[in-house]
Each structure stands twice: as C-alpha cells, then as structure tokens.
C-alpha cells in the first residue's frame, strides 16, 4: 500500500474536508476556527466566493499558458493591478510559484545586478526549503539538517530580539546594527556583498517584528555601500500586518520585494518586484519555470487584491490584530509561562518560557494540541518551537477573535 512520506504523516491529525471563511470542517463535519490560514495563505478566508468565481471562470477559459512561450491576459492584468500596491519605483514584476522560488530568484537577481557574491541573511530568519533558500535560513534547524554542503557566499548577522536579549528595543537595534557593521568589516566586505535579505517580521523565527529603526539602518547601509535590500514579504505581505506591506511600518523602500502566500488566497503564486534598471539591465540568463505565473493563480490573485481592497481587509487586520493582541496579553497575564506576546496586525505569537527563562516547547506543544482539541487550529514556531502563533484570515470578525481568545484561555 502506498502511504504518505513520514514528513507528511507528522502533520496535524485534522482531515480537512472543506473550508468556508475562517472555518475548516473535517470529514465528520466538525468545525474548527482556523487561525493558521494554511500558514498565512488563505488571506481572504477559505473559498471566498469572488476568488472561487474568478478561478472557476479562468479554469474554463485557459488553465496554463507557459509565460516564456505565450503570455496571457490574467498575468498582464495582475501586473498592472500590482502597480496600485507596489512601492513606487518597483515596477517590474517576475512570477514563480512559491516563496522559496521567489527567494531564489531574488538571489540570482542580486548577484547578477551587483556582480558580487555574498548574501547577508538574518539569524533566525526563514526563507524556504529549496537549497538556495535553505542556505539563507537558520530558524528551525531541521531545514538544514543533513543536507549540506549548503550554497556558499551566505553570511549571517543578528536580528534584534529585545525579549530574548532582555533589553530595550533601542538597545537591541543598536547592538544588531553594530554587529552588522562589524560583519561588513570582517566577514563580508561591502565590495563582496550583493544584498541583505530581511523579513519585516521574523516569521518562523518566532514572530518578532523588525523595529523600524533597524530596517532604516539596513536601508542606510545598503545605500552607503551599494548592495541591495531584499525584503521578504512572503508571510507579511498583502495586508497581513495591518499595512499593505510589512516594511510600510518602517517607511523604507526595498530594492527587491518578495511576495507569495496571501497574494492568491491559496493558489500557488509568488512574485518579486524591482526597478526596471535592476530587472532589465542586470538579469541575463535563463529565468522562469514551467508553471510560473499560472493563469488560474493570476486570476485568483486579481480577485484577492480586489477583495482585500473592497472589503477593507488591511484595516481589518490592524483592528482585529489589536483586539487579538489585547486578549492574548490578558491570557498571558494569568499564565506566567507565556513570557511574551508580540507581533504585528494578524500575525501574533505567544512565547512560552520556563520560570528559569529557557524556552518551554513542551508546554507550548500541549497548549497547541489542547487548542486544536477545543476547535482552534494554531501553529508553532520559534527556534525551539516554543512560540504558539496565530495567523487567521484577514476577514476574521470581532466575534471570531473573541471566540479564539476564549478557546485559547481554556487551552493554556
Ligand atoms: N519566506 C518566508 C518569510 C516564509 O515565511 C516562507 C514560508 O513560510 C518562505 C519564504 C518560503 O515559502 P514557500 O513555503 O512558499 O516556499
């Protein structure tokens, strides 16, 4: 008998039969409040009628038209539509299917554009599981375990972590930037540095927002030394943090922006955006992928962007995120094992810590399982798996947020 690989058998025991809005239903029609959103993907909720309608229409029109062979209208329309939301000047867009592939494309672009070898990544960052993306990833040792040698030319610098470093945000920023300056003197001279890649909120690394001063400091150094600032918005983009892009909180402009997950409500689609100068002059060689920029995924993304705009989902993420954070902080106040509640918008983490101050993955795992048992699906993250995170669809309502807080309080 053929079975799933062991890696897939470890997944949650819920057998999802269907999804509707913020809810998933199993084969017995038991309802779960889905605060995982397929790891931040189903931004408009499960099976939003407008996304379903757009995809169904496209399926009956043209499913696949490989974009280096024939171009198709959904991708052209999506590209034009992205112009409404992309940072000014980032007006050339390239499409692939997943976050990891887009990260790989950004590395190719940076190396081509600068002629320099090194990519600097943040300690605790996550950029995917393909070999290039895994080389940039340190959160979750499992991503790299036993698969070396990794891609060369990758250097790591610390991400400011006020909670774990037990200091103020300002002190954490100063320390992280000082270490970055030191790294540019010792391990990756500016003339060898093609780019730094950063997440606006450290995602798999524990839902730690990058302080605006930190991102501004990276921007300054990229300008001063002529390397690129790549912002990985795979998890933080398309409204998730209560602004359209996570980096909007810092008021900086990336040189390369990566987006995926929430872009197409569950259809595989990712993109990188950069200036015309970077994309056209500095990107020779073969690019693309057989399924990149799929027509149905592009139609779903177009519908997603319309729903995000017309249903005010960015503002909803800010409002419901603030409500959820407040509720989680109240729960944490009664449970000292939750040492920190943090995040941005609808991307919130609860860090479990022992009285001695060490990560408490066992209690986090128990709370995570108890929540699922009670009907609330959550995820864990963080270097030790001790952060229970909540990343619901952006359509979540006040009643659903309050219900989730209540279930969480009983699960911890
Ligand atoms: N970058 C970030 C910030 C992510 O959170 C992820 C996935 O969680 C990726 C890249 C990789 O995306 P994918 O799993 O679609 O390859």
From TrEMBL:
Pathway: Amino-acid degradation; 4-aminobutanoate degradation. It is an enzyme of class 2 (transferase). It holds the Pfam family Aminotran_3. Its cofactor is pyridoxal 5'-phosphate. GO terms for molecular function: (S)-3-amino-2-methylpropionate transaminase activity; 4-aminobutyrate:2-oxoglutarate transaminase activity; identical protein binding; pyridoxal phosphate binding. This is (S)-3-amino-2-methylpropionate transaminase. The keyword Zinc does not apply. Its EC number is 2.6.1.19, 2.6.1.22. InterPro entries: Aminotrans_3 (IPR005814), Aminotrans_3_PPA_site (IPR049704), Class-III_PLP-dep_AT (IPR050103), PyrdxlP-dep_Trfase (IPR015424), PyrdxlP-dep_Trfase_major (IPR015421), PyrdxlP-dep_Trfase_small (IPR015422). It catalyses: 4-aminobutanoate + 2-oxoglutarate = succinate semialdehyde + L-glutamate; (S)-3-amino-2-methylpropanoate + 2-oxoglutarate = 2-methyl-3-oxopropanoate + L-glutamate. Keywords: Aminotransferase, Pyridoxal phosphate, Transferase. PROSITE patterns: AA_TRANSFER_CLASS_3 (PS00600). It comes from Saccharopolyspora rhizosphaerae. Belongs to the class-III pyridoxal-phosphate-dependent aminotransferase family. The keyword Transferase applies.
């Amino acid at each position: 008998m053929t079975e799933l690989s062991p890696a897939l058998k470890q997944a949650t025991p819920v057998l999802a039969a269907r999804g509707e809005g913020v809810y998933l239903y199993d084969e017995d029609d038991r309802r779960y409040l889905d605060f995982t959103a397929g790891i931040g993907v189903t931004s408009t909720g499960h099976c939003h009628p407008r996304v379903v309608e757009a995809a169904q229409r496209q399926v009956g029109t043209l499913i696949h038209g490989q974009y280096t062979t024939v171009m198709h209208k959904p991708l052209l329309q999506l590209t034009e539509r992205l112009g409404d939301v992309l940072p000014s000047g980032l007006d050339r867009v390239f499409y692939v299917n997943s976050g990891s592939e887009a990260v790989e494309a950004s590395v190719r672009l940076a190396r081509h554009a600068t002629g320099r070898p090194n990519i600097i990544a943040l300690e605790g960052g996550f950029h995917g599981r393909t070999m290039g993306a895994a080389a940039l990833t340190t959160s979750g040792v499992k991503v790299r375990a036993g698969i070396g040698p990794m891609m060369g030319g990758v250097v790591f610098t610390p991400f400011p972590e006020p909670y774990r470093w037990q200091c103020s945000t300002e002190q954490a920023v100063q320390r992280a930037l000082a270490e970055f300056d030191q790294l540019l003197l010792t391990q990756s001279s500016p003339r060898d540095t093609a780019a730094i890649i950063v997440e606006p909120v450290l995602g798999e690394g524990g839902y730690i927002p990058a302080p605006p001063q930190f991102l501004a400091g990276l921007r300054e150094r990229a300008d001063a030394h002529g390397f690129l600032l790549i912002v990985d918005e795979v998890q933080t983009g398309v409204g998730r943090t209560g602004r359209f892009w996570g980096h909007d909180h810092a008021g900086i402009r990336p040189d390369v922006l990566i987006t995926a997950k929430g872009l197409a409500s569950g259809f595989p689609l990712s993109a990188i955006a950069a200036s015309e100068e970077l994309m056209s002059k500095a990107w020779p060689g073969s690019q693309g992928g057989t399924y990149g920029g799929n027509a149905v995924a592009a139609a779903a993304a177009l519908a997603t962007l319309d729903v995000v705009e017309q249903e005010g989902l960015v503002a909803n993420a800010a409002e419901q995120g603030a409500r959820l954070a407040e509720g989680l902080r109240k729960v944490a106040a009664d449970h000292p094992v939750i040492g920190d509640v943090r995040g941005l918008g609808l991307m919130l983490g609860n860090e479990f810590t022992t009285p001695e101050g060490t990560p408490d993955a066992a209690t986090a795992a128990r709370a995570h399982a108890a929540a699922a048992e009670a009907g609330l699906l959550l995820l864990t993250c963080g270097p030790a798996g001790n952060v229970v995170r909540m990343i619901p669809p952006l359509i979540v309502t006040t009643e659903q947020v309050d219900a989730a807080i209540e279930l969480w309080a009983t699960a911890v």
